[in-house]
Amino acid sequence: MEQGLLPDFPVIAGMQRRRGMISLLAGVAIGVICWCGWGSGPARAQESLPGLIKRIQPAVVTIIGYKADGKVMRLGSGFFVSDHGHLITSRHVIAGVARAEIKLPKGGLYPLTTVLAEDKRTDLVKLSVNIPGGTPHYLQVTGSRPEVGEHVLVVGSPLGLEQSVSEGLVAAIRTIRGRGEFLQISAPISPGSSGGPVLNLKGQVMGVAAFQVRGQNINFAVPGSAVLALGDGPPRLLGRTEAGEKSLPPRPGVRVPPPKMHVP
Asked: 77, 90, 92, 166: which is the annotated catalytic residue?
């Protein structure tokens, strides 16, 4: 035992000294047991977080958008919401691309074929991909309004770094004029994170990574309720624009209004 951890006691002769030492040792033993018992709880709770992340990651994919000449136009993230190959991402991730494909965590590449539903206001889109044998993993979306201060995890491909996990809190719930309600989160996101799931510690999707304010670690996510509200529209092939909508030109740094908000 290191010196200085216990207070100095006067020397007691005979039985009193032995009794004193027995009491002292008993007290130290109880203290060690109590300290170990207190420390084991948080350790066990922390150990469950890697297990949760391992359960989430197989459902999260990297989305690669290509120009007509085959060059990479944009990277983003997405996640499966059914075992039929339906996935959610941010609409701007695939806007204007000639074609797109997903990369699974284990490395398989599959083309995104069909736009099933989309919402310009919330910048969300539901897409379809054909994976032989179906989608082995998908995530549950919750429409419950989170509490400010609730812990969140964000999984995605910031700067193309696949399966990255960041952690933070729900900092606020804000309404952006013309865009609706958004979750302000402290979990870091970067270009490439767009479309990735924002999850609670139950592994439920409570939002979709949307945009950030540069240099301030102020990040925003579309709430899960907006994902659940996506209505099924007439499906269209990816790469074909809606009637009356012009094809978007390639843009390396996509932004949404107001200009100070940077879309990752």
From this structure: 92
Length of the chain (residues): 264
Catalytic residue among 123, 157, 164, 166: 123
For 42-96, write each residue's pLDDT tens digit: 433 444 899 999 999 999 999 999 999 999 999 999 999 998 899 999 999 999 9
Instruction: Kindly compute the dihedral angle of the four CA atoms of residues 187, 192, 196, 198, in this order, to the nearest 10 degrees.
Output: 10
Structure-token pair, residue 207: 């939002």
pLDDT in tens, 17-42: 444 444 444 443 444 333 333 333 34
Q: Give 139-190 as a 3 state SS string.
A: CCECCCCCCCCCEEEEEECHHHCCCEEEEEEEEEEEEECCCEEEEEECCCCC
Catalytic residue among 90, 157, 166, 194: 194
194 classed as catalytic: yes
- Owning domain of residue 104: 57-137+230-237
Please confirm, yes or no, whether 92 is among the known catalytic residues: yes
123 classed as catalytic: yes
Domain count, the chain: 2
**DSSP conformation class of 22:** H
DSSP assignment string, 54-96: HHHGGGEEEEEEE-TTS-EEEEEEEEE-STTSEEEEEHHHHTT
> Residue 176's domain is classified under what CATH number?
2.40.10.10
